[in-house]
Amino acid sequence: MGSIELMSPGMLKKMRTACQLAADTLVMIGEHVKPGVTTEELNRIVHEYTIANNAIPSPLNYRGFPKSICTSINEVVCHGIPGPQVLKDGDIINVDITSYTPTRRGFHGDNSATFYVGTPSEEARNLVEITRRCLEIGIEQVRPNGRVGDIGAAIQEYAEAKGYSVVRDFVGHGIGRSFHMPPNVPHFGSRGTLARMRPGMVFTIEPMINIGDWRCEVQDDDWTVLTADRSLSAQFEHTVVVTREGCEVLTDRKGVLKNSEDVPWADLGPLSCRFAAEQRANQAS
Ligand code: MF3
Ligand code: CO
Ligand code: CO
Question: Whole-prediction pTM value?
């Protein structure tokens, strides 16, 4: 299955820096998601923020990708290319941010979230909240001696019980000195299969969940991935490391994701959204 790197504490320290920048950037960009904004504008803001932080946006020129982030709206599953498209009320948009830092001999940190543009339909809102939960459920499976297949099995079980489907063509991935490396982390499959998780293994979990069929097609630009049936799709992503105790979410956030975690209907789990949960508890008291 190819060898899976285990990071030393020294490497992890640098990996944490890259992941924290990616997380900070995602929090920052959430504030800019609103009707009337173009995806090109979101791209520019992230690009400038990344450079100002002595880092490089990993997507730019990666296998020929032309921009610094991926912006995937509504029926776009992933790898949407920023451009002149204007966000409109009721859209959902995944912004996928990967930071490479420092600018040489560095590490990549990868995370993404789906944001609400204005007020979503009930259909969109349910999809996004179930997808948010899918990532949490995947993270709950991460522990030493567990199997990578446990992650996808738990996600698929939950998503399908809700009547949704799990994208098969794109999977989570090992990450570190390279953007994509072993292992593959499918968001579907069977418990007890694939690699055994070991402390120091670093990978992403990034479920893409569709309202309709799981099948995808790639547009003529060779990047933009759409649902084959044009049903809505949502995605959330974190980079995690297997620890002796269980799991550390390397892209955990120091703040709330505006236009995603701060909405009253956000279904916040215990793991990745604790700041939003805290904020909500404070507001209630
Ligand atoms: N960030 C995406 C992922 O989660 C990969 C984007 S590849 C790009 O793996 F070239 F489109 F940027
Ligand atoms: Co990503
Ligand atoms: Co990724």
Answer: 0.96
How far is the C-alpha of 114 from the C-alpha of 132, rounded, in Å? Answer: 8
Closest-CA residue, ligand 1 atom 11, reads 79
Please give the radius of gyration of the chain, using alpha carbons only, rounded to the nearest integer: 17
Sequence-separated (6 or more) residues with CB below 8 Å from residue 173 = 180, 181, 182, 183, 184, 185, 203, 204
Give nearest CA residue, ligand 1 atom 8.
Answer: 59
Nearest to 246 by CA among 199, 204, 190: 199
Ligand 1 atom with the smallest distance to the CA of 237 is 4
The verdict on residue 3 lying in a domain is no
Confidence of residue 81 (pLDDT cuts 50, 70, 90): very high
Question: How many structural domains does the chain have?
Answer: 1
Please identify, by atom number, the ligand 1 atom nearest to the C-alpha of residue 62.
10
Nearest CA to ligand 1 atom 12: 59
Residue 142 CA, ligand 3 centroid: distance in Å:
17
CATH code (residue 111): 3.90.230.10
Residue 1 lies in a domain: no
Please check whether residue 145 lies inside any domain of the structure.
yes
The model's pLDDT over 200-239, given as tens digits with 9 standing for 90+, comes to 999 999 999 999 999 999 999 999 999 999 999 999 999 9
User: Is 155 a domain residue?
Assistant: yes
How much is the pLDDT for 268?
83
112 CA → ligand 2 middle, Å: 6
